[in-house]
Amino acid sequence: MNGALYAAAGSDPAQLLEVAREFSPRIDVCGPREITLDLTGLARLFGDARTIAGELRRTAADRGLRVRVAIAASRTAARLLVRHRAGLTIVEPGDDAQALAPLPLELLLNVRRGGPSGPPDDQDAEICASFRRWGLRTLGEVAALPPADVAARMGQAGVQWQRLARGDDPAPLVPSVPEERFEQALDLEWPIDGLEPLSFVLGRLMDPLSAHLERRDRGAAVLHVRLHLVSKAVHERTLELPAPMRDARTLRTLVLLDLESHPPAAAIDRVVVAVDPTPARILQYSLLTRPLPSPEQVSTLMARLNALMGEGRCGSPSVVDSWRPGAFAMAPFAPSEPDGGGREGREGREGGVGKALVVALRRFRFAVPARVQVDDGRPVRVTTERRGISGGRIDKAAGPWRTSGQWWASPESGKSGGSGESGRSDPDSPWDRDEWDVTVSDGATYRLFRERDANAWFIDGVLD
Amino acid sequence: MAKIALAALESALRDRKLDRTLTTALPPLEQAADACAPTGVAAVDACLRNGVPRGQLSELAGPRSAGCTTLLLQAMAAATQRGELVALVDTFDRLDVASMEAAGADLRRVLWIRGQVGPPEWAIDRALKALNLVLQAGGFGLVAIDLADVPAATLRRIPFTTWLRVQRAVEGRDTACLLVAPEPIARSAGGLTLTLTGRATWTGTSARPRVAGAELRMQVVSPRRRVGGDVAVSARTDDVPSYVVAGH
User: Fold this and answer.
1) Chain A contact set for B85 (CB, 8 A)
2) Dihedral sign (CA B165, B169, B172, B177)
3) Which of the four, A86, A179, A310, B18, has the lowest number of CB atoms within 10 Å?
4) Residue-wise over B65-97: b if at least 16 C-beta within 10 A, else e?
C-alpha cells in the first residue's frame, strides 16, 4: 500500500516532509509539493486505508497545510490520482487500472517531469502529441493498446508511458534519507582546565561520533571543535583532514595536538564536536608494493611533528620555478600509491643502481658571513666567526659565476631579513652575486659568494 | 643441564625483550633481498651485501666534504624510486632541495623535518624526538637523521643510551635508519658504520679550474654482519655533463 501527499501551492516543503516522516520512514520526495510514502504495515497502527488518509490530512492541517491524499497499490497510481482529485482518494487493492482509466492523458507528462511547473521533455511531449493524434484522450485508452505495437511504433519510451498509464511503478522506492548531523556535545558539571581532563571528555564524544560515521559509511572531512568557556567566549577550532577518517583515537589525538598549539583562554564548561561527513574511502592494497602508512597515521604523525618542530617545518620539499640559489617550497606530506604499482618498484630497483653519483651541497639556510682575503681578483683566504667552520688558506678556487635576479624589485625588500641573511628569507628580494667554489687547506670544499652591491662575502654551503 | 640453563637464560632475556640485542646469532650470509635497503650505488651495495640493513641503525661518518650527504641523498633517492617513503630529520636545516632532486629523488615521497637554528643541544633534543616519532609511526623505508654539523664535543655528550633507544625503536621494522655524523657515535651492533674520507676533484687549467666532482672513499665496519672493506666511488657535480668527467 502506497500513499501520495500533494500540498497546495505556497506550502512549506519542510513542513510537508515532517508530516510524511511522522507516518513512514520510507518516503520519496517527488517534488517540492509532492511526496510518496510506503504505508505498508500502518494498518495495524491506524486502521484501514481511509483512516490513514484521514489521519495524514488531519496532521497536515494541524501544521497549517492543505493537502490532497491518495492511497493506492502502486506509487504511480497514487501520484496520478492525487494530482487529479482533491481531498481523499482511496483505491482498493486491484482496482488501480480501473481508477486510472478515466484520467486525462496529460497527467502522465506531470508525473514524468516530476512537477507541473517544469518544462516537459521533448520526447515525452512528442509521445503525448502522437497519442492525441491517434485520438487517445485517457490513460485507460493508452493502457489498452497492444504493447508490442506501441513498442514497434514508439520504442521503449512509448512502452514506459503505457506502463505508467496502467499504474505500474517504473522502479522500486528509494527512500529519501534525512540529512544527518554528525555532532556530539557535552555540558560539564564543573568547568575543566587543561588538556588532560579534556582528553577524557573528547574520548566520550568521539566514540559515539565514530560509531555514527561507521553506521552511515561516512568519514570525517572536516572536524569542528567548539569549546564554550566560562568567560562566555567560544573557542572554535576547525581541522581539515587530509583524507576521510573516523577512527576515534586518531580524531581525538588530532584535536588534542591542535589544542596544544592553540589552547583555550579559560576553563571549559561545554564541549561540542561536529564533523562534515564525506563518503568513506575505499582502499585497494597492492600485493607488489609496500603498504603506505594510512592517512590516520600520517595525520597523527604530522600533527605531532608540527607541535614539536613548529608549523611549516615539516612536509615534502618541492622545487620552485626560480633561478634564486637555494629556492624551495614546502608541500604537505601526502604520500600516494606509486603509479604503475610494482613495475615502478622494479624499475626503481634496477634503474637506481649504476646511476652516476651527484655531489650534494649542504646549504646554510642563512648564509654565514665570512671575511675573505682577495689577491689578484681571486679569494686566497677565508675566515669566519661561526663555530665549527674552520676556514683557512684557499688551495683551489673556481669562479666567479655571476648570478642575479629579481632586479626589478625594491632593493629595500632584500634587506628585510637582517644581517647575515643575504635576503634569502624574502623570495621577492633581488640578488646579485658572484659565486666561488673553494677548497681550503683542511680539504673541505665550500661555496662562497660575494654580494656585489654590499661587497660582503658569505659562505653559502659545503659540497659534501 | 647446560642446555636447560641456556634455555632458561634465553627465555628470561626474551621476557625482558633483550634477546635480539644480546643473544641473537650472527645474521646469515645469504639474506632476503628485502632485508636491506640498497643505496643505489652498485659498488657500495656490492660491498654491503645489498645495502643498508633494515631494522638496524647504521652510520655515515666523515668530516666536511667527505661525501656523507652525497651518499645519503643517493640512498634516499634510490628508496623513493622503489616506491618507499623516506624521512629526513634535518637537525640544522641544511638540505639543498636542488641536490636532492638532482640525485633523482621523488620529492613527494620525502618527509623533510626541518630543525631550527638554535643552541646545538636544543636542536639535537628536538631532532631526536622527531626521529623517535617517525620511527614509531612506521611505514618508512629509510629514515635518516643529520647530525653532521654538530660539534664533536656536543655529540659525545649525548648519552649512549639514546642510540640504544633508537635501535630499539627501529628493531623489527622494515625501516633502515641512517645517522650522519662527523664521527662514529652509535656503534650499533647490528648496523653498519661507513667512514667516509672523500675529497673534491678538480678539472680545467690552473688558470681556470673548476670542481668536477668528488672521489668518495668508504671504509665499511660491521664485524657482526661480516661485511667490511674499502670502496671508492666517484661523484660528479650536477652542472658538469658526465662526458666531461669521463674525459671524452
Assistant:
1) 292-293, 335
2) negative
3) A179
4) bbbbbbbbbbbbbbbbbbbbbbbbbbbbbbbbb
pLDDT band at B19 (very low <50, low <70, confident <90, very high): low
Q: Is residue A353 predicted with pLDDT exceeding 70?
A: no
A357–B74 C-beta distance less than 8 A: yes
Instruction: Quickly tell me which residue has 606530506 as its cell.
Output: A333
CB distance A438 to A460 below 8 Å: no
Residue A3: DSSP 8-state: E
Is residue A188 scored above 70 in pLDDT? yes
Q: Residue B73: what residue type?
A: L
Closest CA to A276 of A259, A257, A251, A297: A251
Nearest chain A CA: its distance from B45 CA (Å): 9
A299 CB neighbours in chain B (<8 A) are none
A342: left (phi over 0), alpha (psi -120 to 50) or beta: alpha
What count of other Cβ atoms lies within 10 Å of the Cβ of residue A167?
A: 27
* Interface contact flag, B63 A336, Cβ < 8 Å: no
Count of CB atoms situated within 10 Å of the CB of A4: 28
Given a cut of 50, whether residue A416 has pLDDT beyond it is no
Q: What is the mean pLDDT of chain B?
A: 83
Rounded CA separation A304/A317 (Å): 19
Q: What does the mean pLDDT of chain A come to?
A: 83
d(CA A451, CA A329): 24
Q: Does A328 touch chain B (CB under 8 A)?
A: yes
The CA-atom distances, in angstroms, between A255 and each of A230, A247, A281, B129 are 20, 12, 21, 21
What letters, b where the CB count within 10 A reaches 16 and e where it falls short, cover B105-121? bbbbbbbbbbbeeeebe
> What global pTM score does this model have?
0.70
pLDDT tens for each residue of A376-387: 888 999 888 887
Q: Cell 634516499: give the residue.
A: B76
Residue B15: predicted pLDDT: 75
From the list A326, A347, A354, the residue facing B42 with the nearest CB is A354
Predicted ipTM > 0.85: no
Does A418 contact B at CB distance below 8 Å?
Answer: no
Cell of B139: 611505514
Residue among B116, B208, B242 whose CB faces A356 most closely:
B242
